[in-house]
Specification:
There is one protein chain. The protein is of the alpha/beta class. It is about 40% helix and about 15% strand. The protein contains 10 helices and 11 strands. The strands form 3 sheets. A 6-stranded parallel sheet has the order 1-11-8-7-5-6. Helix 2 links the parallel strand 2 and strand 3. Helix 6 packs across helix 7 and helix 6 packs across helix 10. The radius of gyration is 19 Å and the shape is globular. The relative contact order is 0.17.
Length: about 290
């Protein structure tokens, strides 16, 4: 058995086509969906990621504002910038690229973003609504994973999902989204005793650890679906995931490659959230009687 590769590039392209159609519809109503990306410092990986977001925005006909600051920026100045973006009717999504320099409290920054423009899905209000199954902007990577499973008609209902990793960005929220899809969910992390014992029970295994090729075939139940969120560099400087693809592909039934699996979905879901926010702004204007 060789695992079927889950093609995140192809699925993300389909989503972007749908987003583009929604953008064109909004433009006919005089609205251009706008995303503001704020970056503090010169982190090269963050800059590359931000430029990819900008390129995607422009390709889809959306407005993209990049606000770049030196890593000496005081927290109050960043909070003031966010408040001005909150008040700007032409900006529908605000994204502050993490990590931030040590003088800035990330939680204060996340808290400052208007939940109506929180297209990253990190605000406590967004997280709370997601937890109880109410409408919210979902975190982009976990939402992208759900979309991949839907595309390949992999139904989590009744399946045992094991999530390895407990970050607020991926691990915790993806487990909650799987729970909403009626999966039975186990979380594993750095303090888990006998990781392989738990991971081998997974019908769907989601790896978000950040350790290159850590998971081998000995960690995988035969026929499991393996979703690799890792984005690492191996000893040769080549991009790789948390799962040793070559070692696992004859054990799993479906697998996401790295690159080309979950990664492209993250930006596609960010674009979808931004367009959704622009559409929400029309509904809001109508309900308040303003335009």
């Amino acid at each position: 058995m060789t695992a079927i590769r889950i093609d995140g590039k192809a699925v993300s392209q389909e989503i972007k086509v749908q987003v583009q159609q929604r953008v064109e519809k909004l433009k006919k109503q005089g609205i251009v969906p706008g995303l503001a990306v704020v970056i503090v410092g010169e982190n090269s990986a963050s800059l590359t990621y931000v430029k990819n977001k900008q390129k995607t925005c422009e390709a889809l006909g959306m407005r993209s504002d990049l606000l770049q600051f030196p890593d000496t920026l005081p927290e109050q100045e960043l909070l003031a910038t966010i408040e001005s973006l909150n008040q700007d009717p032409n900006i529908h999504g605000i994204l502050v690229q993490l990590p931030l320099p040590k003088q800035i409290d990330e939680f204060n920054v996340i808290l400052a973003i208007d939940p109506a423009k929180d297209v990253d899905g990190f605000h406590p209000i967004s997280v709370g609504n997601m937890m109880i199954g109410r409408e919210a902007f979902l975190p982009c990577t976990p939402h992208g994973i759900i979309k991949l499973l839907e595309h390949y008609e992999i139904d989590p209902a009744g399946k045992h999902t094991v999530v390895i990793g407990r970050s607020n960005i991926v691990g915790k929220p993806v487990g909650q989204l799987m729970l909403q899809k009626n999966a039975t969910v186990t979380y594993c992390h750095s303090k888990t005793v006998d990781l392989a014992f738990h991971s081998k029970q997974a019908d769907i295994l989601i790896a978000a650890i950040g350790i290159p090729k850590m998971l081998k075939s000995t960690h995988i139940k035969p026929g499991a679906v393996v979703i690799d969120v890792g984005m690492n560099r191996d000893e040769f400087g080549k991009l790789c995931g948390d799962v040793d693809f070559a070692d696992v592909e004859n054990t799993a039934s479906y697998m996401t490659p790295v690159p080309g699996g979950v990664g492209p979905m993250t930006i596609a879901m960010l674009m979808e959230n931004t367009v959704q926010s622009a559409e929400n702004s029309i509904t809001k204007d109508k309900s308040t009687g303003t335009m």
